[in-house]
From TrEMBL:
GO terms for molecular function: acyltransferase activity, transferring groups other than amino-acyl groups. It comes from Nocardioides daedukensis. Residues 18-152 form the N-acetyltransferase domain. The keyword Transit peptide does not apply. This is GNAT superfamily N-acetyltransferase. It comes from the Bacteria. SUPFAM superfamilies: Acyl-CoA N-acyltransferases (Nat). CDD domains: NAT_SF.
Amino acid sequence: MTVGTAGNPAGIPGFPDAVASLAGAGDMEEFARLQWRAFEPALHEPLEVLTQDVLGATTWLVRDSGRLVGSVRCEVHGEFAHLSLVMVEPDLQGRGVGRWLVGHAEEMAPPQVTAYQLFTAAGNVAFYAGLGYVAEGERETLSSVVRMGKDR
C-alpha cells in the first residue's frame, strides 16, 4: 500500500514529493543504514533482527524524491498498538516528518485499537508529549528509556 505519488504526495508539509509505503524485504539494507544514522549505537540491531522486526508488523516508510527519510512500525496487540522504530534522517529532524509518521500510524491502526504505547529515549519525551502521549514510567531494563501512552 502506498500513500501519495509524485502527482498526489503524502501531504507532509515541506515535503511536496514525499510518498509513504509499507516496508518490504527490498527496503531492509537502506532501512538498517537509516537506523544507524538515526539511533544511538546501543539501539542498533543486526540486519537479520531488524528485518524480522520490520516485516513482522506494519512498518511505514516515507521517501522524499526516492530517498528514505523516515519510518514507523506499528504492532497491534488486541486493543493496543505498540509504535516503534520511529526514525527520521538526522538532517531532517524537527521538520514534521516524525510527527506525520506517528499520526499516520495512529490513523491507520485497526478500529479495535483504543490506545497506543511506545518506548522512547528520555530526550524524546517532549516530542511525544506534544503529540498527546503521557509518560507512564521507565522501562525496567533500561532506565533511560521511557514508556509513553495515549488513548485513541
